[in-house]
Every structure is written in structure tokens, then in C-alpha cells.
Amino acid sequence: MKTIKDKQASAIRYYDRFSKIYDWISSDSYYRKARTLAIEKMDLKQNQTILNIPCGTGQNFSNFQNELNNTGKIVGVDLSGGMLSKAKVKAKKWSNIKLIKADATEIDRDWINEYVDEGLEFDSILCDLGLSGFPDWKNVIDNLINLLKSGGKLVIMDWYIEKPNLRGWFIKWVGKGEVNRPLYQYMEGKVDHFEVDHSFKNGEMFVAVGSRNKASLSSQK
Ligand SMILES: C[S@@+](CC[C@H](N)C(=O)[O-])C[C@H]1O[C@@H](n2cnc3c(N)ncnc32)[C@H](O)[C@@H]1O
């Protein structure tokens, strides 16, 4: 039987291959409405430090730069070398993007201190189409919230199809993830000022935002 590690490794091999056509299949226009709201909810301002996980081929970079304008810092993390090599090509236009190959399930404060910058905290984090595929997704959400500055924003954009229909099965097959994980429902109990809009793709895709609640999470520091 396939272990979680085997499944993850085979998903990453798949994304290494898929990277060649990802921007064509998963086109900018297909997710535009949801992405536009997700980035709006990050409430970006010049000189901020943000994390995009998984950054995939870097489809969000130019939208981030509309607000950051090559100031501050964008950290992009993905586990697929193929996806990251596409992201690298896009990132060349600017000097404020740092790309790192890493497993989302291992990213916490210690990891940031060791591999990015000691004591770095983020103004906002965008996790788009990632948590539906990551193992141990609840822990990833907890860790991401804990990487935010107090009041910083976590934005999740993903699928939620409670009873997978034909599109759900297709998305599971193409994306190598699940479509019925209660991602925003879990997040709701962990953040302040939670909001969700699930009006995308006939109510099957959502954008959720919430901010880090200092009191409830400071014990995790
Ligand atoms: C559907 S793509 C989304 C990429 C990008 N966020 C977007 O919206 O275009 C899923 C991405 O998750 C990455 N991924 C899967 N498991 C991962 C893990 N454990 N850690 C980091 N990245 C992972 C894949 O390599 C792939 O780039």
C-alpha cells in the first residue's frame, strides 16, 4: 500500500512533468476572479514581506508586483523543481523574489530562521491550490498562521466540493489532491476577522482570509 510519503513523491514527480504545460492548462483566465480577490484580500502595501506557498510556476508574481512594485520581499516556496524553474524565469524581471524548494509540511518558524531570515515574519501569506494536496494540512495551516506578524493575513484559495461531482473528480485527477477538505472551516476557528467568499466556480471554489490572533497563538512562538 502507498504511504503518504510515496503519494507525495509521486505528486511531485507529476508536477515536475506537468510544469511544462501548467500555465497553458491552468491558465490565468481560468482562476482570474478568485485570484484577483485573493490578492486583494492580502491587502498588499509597498515594502511588505509576503509568502506564496505553493508558488507553482509563479502565476501570482506580476499581480503581487502591481502593489509591491519590486519593494519588500516575496518568498515563493514549492516542492517541485519543474514548477520552480518556470517560476524562476518569471521572477527574473524583479529583484525582490526569493524562491525556495521545500516541503510545505516542514515550514515553521525554525525553518524560516534557518533557511530564509532569522526572525522573519510575514505581512501576508497566500496559499493557493496547495492545501488540497498537502499532507498534514491542519498542521500546515497552524504553522502558516504562526509565521504571520500580529494582525498579518492568511489567504487561502482552494476547492471545496463536499460531495465530489464530475468536476470534483476531474480536479482531483488533474491536481493530485482532495476537493472536500474542510480547509476554511478549520481556518475559521484559528484566526480573527475571518471572511470567506465561496461564489467561485459555481460555489465550488473559495477565497478565505483571516488575520493572526496574537493572544491565541503567542504560545506557539
Ligand atoms: C495546483 S498547483 C498550485 C500552484 C500555484 N499556487 C497556483 O495557484 O498556480 C499545486 C502546487 O503544489 C506543489 N506542492 C505539492 N505538494 C507540496 C508540498 N508538500 N510542499 C510544497 N509544495 C507542494 C506542487 O509542486 C504544485 O506546484
TrEMBL record:
* Superkingdom in the source lineage: Bacteria
Matches recorded under CDD domains: AdoMet_MTases
InterPro entries this protein is in? Methyltranfer_dom, SAM-dependent_MTases_sf
Tell me which Gene3D superfamilies the record gives: Vaccinia Virus protein VP39
Domain spans labelled Methyltransferase: 45-162
What Pfam families has UniProt attached to this entry?
Methyltransf_31 (PF13847)
Protein name per its UniProtKB record:
Methyltransferase domain-containing protein
Q: Whose protein is this, by species?
A: Portibacter lacus
